[in-house]
Specification:
The complex is a heterodimer of chains A (187) and B (198). Chain A contains 5 helices and no strands. By secondary structure, chain A is an all-alpha fold. Chain A starts with 13 loop residues before the first helix and ends with a helix. With 198 residues, chain B is an all-alpha fold. Helix content of chain B is 74%, strand content 0%. The chains are: A mainly alpha (187), B mainly alpha (198).
């Protein structure tokens, strides 16, 4: 833009578009109300706590929930301290006492369950593969006795269908949740 | 926006995220004029614009921990403002009609003479009248634009955002922003022609 004033061109033609562009760049602007800043700061200061960076505290918890959580934490802390000092007074090492009374059994139980689920998991995987292969082979070799095959494999085919549907539903839920989070952050 | 300013803004956002109100105060100070003008031209009412601007800043502060990219604070702020302004506009069910006098007193226009290359001393009465007429014309034309064109125009020329930032605020492709701005200018041109031909 030059230093000298250029009279706006007559209506029509691309020059007017340039004039429109120029006029838009100099659209009249107002100052924000003088009290806007103080109003915002006052509104913000009414919050009990500043925005938290901690992942857990980012959840929109009300003050009541926060009080409950803090109370529980305090009670747990007091309980732990009480147990520690009481066991020391009785002459028992607290960690040994916990291990002897509950820890050992709990670990054994956990190991047993882990082994069970490992076995069950591998069985399920094996059946998935076998059923899939069986289906492919039979369709490939044009086996006509489908009724027999269905009766034999009904449970596994049903399980595959249901688990597939569940997995799809779970995936959709996750995607939905992700979209919601995205919308929340956009808002 | 220069890199230094952008970095300073990111630092301010991070500090505000940690709960430093002074840092957020600086951000409010930085954006309040642009945001207010943007909302004012969308809703067409000063009190509403001030309320929505306040609400925007408060909501942004509350949701600050959810902001993923500190550098995108401006676009995020204008997105919140645009959403709130749209809601307010729908609630009121009236069109935005900001007349020139409602936006800027004549005295302020005269003081902005330099903006269009006019010197304070060499300004004739005709030039001032012509300028007033142009402001009135363009302001009226902008306020009459359909929302899909008005929003990019205001974000570009009032808020001073780049095409990429506008695309992010309106969640449309950059190419669409360019197209809408081009069409908006065509509409404004036609409106000005119509007004001048009276």
């Amino acid at each position: 833009m030059g230093d000298e004033y250029r009279r706006p061109p007559a209506p029509g033609g691309d020059e007017l578009v340039d004039w429109v562009e120029e006029a838009l760049r100099h659209l009249p602007k107002e100052k924000a109300p003088v009290d806007l800043h103080s109003r915002v700061m006052q509104a913000i200061s009414q919050f009990n706590a500043p925005p938290a960076t901690n992942l857990l505290l980012r959840m929109p918890l009300t003050a009541l929930y926060k009080i409950c959580a803090l109370s529980l934490a305090l009670i747990s802390l007091l309980g732990c301290a009480g147990f520690y000092f009481y066991s020391r007074r009785l002459g028992i090492a607290p960690l040994v006492w916990i291990w002897e009374r509950g820890g050992k059994a709990l670990m054994e139980y956990a190991a047993e369950k882990t082994a069970y689920w490992q076995e069950a998991g591998s069985l399920i995987l094996w059946r998935w593969t076998q059923t899939g292969l069986d289906l492919w082979q039979r369709s490939a070799f044009h086996i006509t006795n489908w009724w027999h095959w269905w009766r034999e494999n009904l449970v596994w085919v049903g399980a595959m269908t249901v688990s597939g549907l569940l997995a799809t539903a779970l995936l959709l839920c996750l995607l939905d949740r992700l979209a919601m989070r995205r919308n929340e952050s956009n808002a | 926006m220069t890199l230094a300013v952008q970095m300073a803004e990111e630092v301010l956002v991070e500090r505000a995220r940690r709960g430093e109100m002074e840092a957020y105060g600086l951000l409010v100070e930085r954006y309040q004029d642009k945001l207010y003008n943007f909302i004012l031209r969308l809703v067409g009412h000063r009190d509403d614009a001030a309320d929505i601007a306040q609400e925007t800043f408060v909501r942004a502060y509350q949701a600050l921990p959810r902001l993923r990219d500190n550098g995108a604070f401006a676009t995020w702020l204008f997105r919140i403002a645009a959403n709130l302004a749209r809601t307010a506009w729908r609630r009121r069910r009236r069109l935005s009609t900001v007349e020139l006098d409602a936006v800027m007193p004549v005295a302020q226009i005269t003081s902005q003479a330099g903006a269009l290359g006019l010197t304070e001393t060499g300004e004739s009465v005709e030039a001032v009248v012509e300028k007033q007429e142009r402001y009135r014309c363009i302001t009226k034309a902008v306020s009459d634009l359909p929302p899909i064109y008005k929003e990019p125009v205001l974000l570009r020329y009032v808020a001073g955002l780049s095409y990429e930032q506008i695309a992010e605020v309106l969640q449309i492709p950059c190419r669409t922003v360019e197209t809408r701005l081009y069409r908006a200018r065509q509409i404004l041109r036609q409106s000005c022609e119509d007004m001048r031909s009276w």
